Amino acid sequence: MPDVITRPVVVSVHRSAAHAFSKAASHAVQLIAGLGVEGDAHAGPHDQHVYHIRKFGKVPNLRQVHLIQTETLDELRGRGHVVRPGELGENIATRDLDLLALPTGTRLALGPEAVIELTGLRNPCVQIDRFQPGLMSQLVARTAAGVVRKCGVMSIVVRGGEVKPGDPITVTLPPLPHTPLTYVPPVPAGA
Q1: Where residue 1 falls among pLDDT bands split at 50, 70, 90?
Q2: Class of 65-172 in CATH
Q3: In this structure, are residues 13 and 163 in contact, taking their beta carbons and an 8 Å threshold?
Q4: Are 167 and 156 in contact (CB under 8 A)?
Q5: What is the pLDDT of residues 5-14, one digit of tens each?
């Protein structure tokens, strides 16, 4: 019996014009090169997180598009936390792609036009426990090797285009040696 081959796919897309924790589902989103998701509060050439703006001022936006794998949401459901796509603030939910295992600089072609580049891991914050008590402990683990973050990845838009549920995802790894994804600091190295 042949192995079942699965291909990475976009499950859902989300945006919010307000700086809200969760984002509403859309039938499609438009990615804009160098900015992010059109109509989303986190789009722009500079970091749009209110806390980061107050603390660091105007710095490049390395968090233009937030992605999470729906397998993480499945795991949470198995542990008693029902979290639907978009509720953790992601713009794009995926399936059949281990986002957290990809290296920094990986490019993802989303549908026929859009291309994003992974910049790092999302750093979960206290708002997660405000959303659902106890959820943060399921998304952040402290190990002997350090902190393990499981709340998705951040990226920048390299080439714009429409992205919608059902779109295929094509992965292009950066040249060797690969650098594992780490927390995206608010201030880029050397700034």
Answers
A1: very low
A2: mainly beta
A3: yes
A4: no
A5: 679 999 999 9
Domain regions of the chain by residue span? 65-172
Q: How far apart are CA 33 and CA 99, in angstroms?
A: 21
Percent composition of the chain: helix, strand, coil (DSSP 3-state, to 5): 15, 35, 50
- Scan for tokens 């594992």, then name that residue: 180
DSSP E strands, the chain: 9-15, 24-26, 29-32, 36-37, 65-69, 92-95, 107-110, 114-121, 140-143, 146-149, 153-159, 161-163, 169-172
What CA–CA distance (Å, rounded) separates 77 from 93?
15
Which residues touch 178 (CB under 8 Å, ≥6 apart)?
103, 104, 105
Is this model's pTM higher than 0.90 or not? Answer: yes
Element (H, E) at 78: helix 70-78
